[in-house]
């Protein structure tokens, strides 16, 4: 039986420090995401875009920017994503900024608790996103979702999903990190987050990095990939507001996606931070769709199962 994909658009830049990621869902659709998925023999349901508050573009209050609006968007996403999982669908969240990882991953964690699955999160990003109100230099909540999911944040966000923390830090494996704030760096170390930064990838290569990040999964593993397009080097993916030089190349990113596909365990996906306002002819959304194509099994040759 074919897998059913459910696309959930979340058109907001409420957690970001620049406008434009709210246009990301449509950019991904225009880039041919639906057609590509159908070419894999998948059933695709496009649930359209969620609705939520507009971006008031106000300064932070007590270390959090737009906390009420971020909460409302993430609560809506949590419910939509959990409903898709309950139906046996594979949700693909079209962001939107990466604060939406709170609603998405808390829903996956809730689903795993209900079904007895073991959660594994592969977090593809230039940033660790492990800030708190005390550590953040900006107050932008898109720099905080992993910390919030691990129970470090405001009450209304950490309790989305009904259990605090939503996840344990040891389920998260971060790839491609190369920008971490000073206080955040110490906090990541204290919490024992597994981070394969760009130095690790430079020294050991993407193959060993992904082999380690994916090691130990079983048939009972629910694999969630949270793909922030600033994971990629800005030379190939300029359409993000938070570019950091020195990210994975096209081939490194393809290998990363291909090795995830080889596991056969992908069960939910975020595509975050596509910002058409920063892009050139939608090339970043087109590249994201190309990489997601590999995530669902596109390969140059027919390969034997590992």
From TrEMBL:
It catalyses: L-arginine + H2O = urea + L-ornithine. The keyword ATP-binding does not apply. Pathway: Nitrogen metabolism; urea cycle; L-ornithine and urea from L-arginine: step 1/1. The keyword Manganese applies. Keywords: Arginine metabolism, Hydrolase, Manganese, Metal-binding. Mn(2+) binds at residues 98, 125, 127, 129, 228, 230. Binds 2 manganese ions per subunit. PANTHER family: ARGINASE. This is Arginase. It comes from Ephemeroptericola cinctiostellae. The gene is rocF.
């Amino acid at each position: 039986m074919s897998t059913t994909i459910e696309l959930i658009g979340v058109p907001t830049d409420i957690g970001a420090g620049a406008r434009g990621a709210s246009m990301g869902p449509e950019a991904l659709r225009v880039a041919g995401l639906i057609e590509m998925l159908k070419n894999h023999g998948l059933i695709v349901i496009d649930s359209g875009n969620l609705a939520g508050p507009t971006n008031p573009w106000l300064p932070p209050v007590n270390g959090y920017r737009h906390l009420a609006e971020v909460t409302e968007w993430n609560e809506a996403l949590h419910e939509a994503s959990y409903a898709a999982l309950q139906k046996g669908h594979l949700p693909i969240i079209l962001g939107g900024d990466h604060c939406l990882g709170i609603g998405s991953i808390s829903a996956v964690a809730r689903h795993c608790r209900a079904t007895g699955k073991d959660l594994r999160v592969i977090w593809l990003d230039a940033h660790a996103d492990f800030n708190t109100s005390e550590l953040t230099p900006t107050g932008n909540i898109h720099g905080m979702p992993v910390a919030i999911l691990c129970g470090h944040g405001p009450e209304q966000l950490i309790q989305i999903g009904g259990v605090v923390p939503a996840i344990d830090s040891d389920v998260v494996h971060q790839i491609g990190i190369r920008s971490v704030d000073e206080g955040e760096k110490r906090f990541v170390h204290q919490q024992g987050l597994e981070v394969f930064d760009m130095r690790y990838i430079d020294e050991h290569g993407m193959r060993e990095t992904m082999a380690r990040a994916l090691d130990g999964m079983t048939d009972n593993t629910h694999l969630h990939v949270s793909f922030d397009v600033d994971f990629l080097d800005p030379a190939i993916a300029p359409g993000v507001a938070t570019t950091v030089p020195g990210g994975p190349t096209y081939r490194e990113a393809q290998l990363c996606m291909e090795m995830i596909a080889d596991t056969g365990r992908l069960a939910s996906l975020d595509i975050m931070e596509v910002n058409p306002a920063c892009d050139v002819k939608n090339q970043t959304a087109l590249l994201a769709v190309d990489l997601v194509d590999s995530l669902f099994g596109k390969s140059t040759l027919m390969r034997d199962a590992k």
